[in-house]
Design goal:
Distance between the termini: 19 Å
CATH topology: Glutaredoxin
Shape: globular
Strand order of the largest sheet: 1-2
Largest sheet: 2 strands, parallel
Oligomer: single chain
CATH architecture: 3-Layer(aba) Sandwich
Length: 90
C-alpha cells in the first residue's frame, strides 16, 4: 500500500485514491491505517455490497472507477503502482 499512497500523492491533481474496509469494524481500519502511517481515505463496506458491485473476489484488489462511477479496470492481487513496469496507465 505504500506505492498506492505515493501514487495518490503524486497524482492528487487528477486522481482520487480510496481504500475500502471490507467487513471489518471501522476501528480495525483506523488502527491499521495508523500502524502503517497511510494517509488515505477509508470507505466502509461492512456488508460486502461494494465488493459484489465491483466484482471483487480476491484481496487485495484495485478497482479503477472513472468520474462517472463506471468501473474501467480491476487489478487482482498486489501491484507496485510506482515501480512496476506493467503498471496501468490512466
Amino acid at each position: 500500500m505504500p506505492s498506492l499512497q505515493k501514487l495518490a500523492t503524486t497524482r492528487a491533481q487528477d486522481l482520487v485514491v480510496l481504500t475500502v474496509n471490507f467487513k471489518d469494524a471501522p476501528r480495525s481500519a483506523e488502527q491499521f491505517m495508523a500502524q502503517t502511517d497511510l494517509q488515505l481515505p477509508v470507505v466502509s463496506d461492512r456488508d460486502g455490497a461494494r465488493a459484489r458491485q465491483w466484482g471483487v473476489r480476491v484481496f487485495p484488489s484495485t478497482v479503477l472507477i472513472d468520474s462517472q462511477g463506471v468501473v474501467r479496470s480491476t487489478v487482482r492481487g498486489a501491484i507496485d503502482w510506482i515501480n512496476d513496469p506493467c503498471k496501468i496507465t490512466f
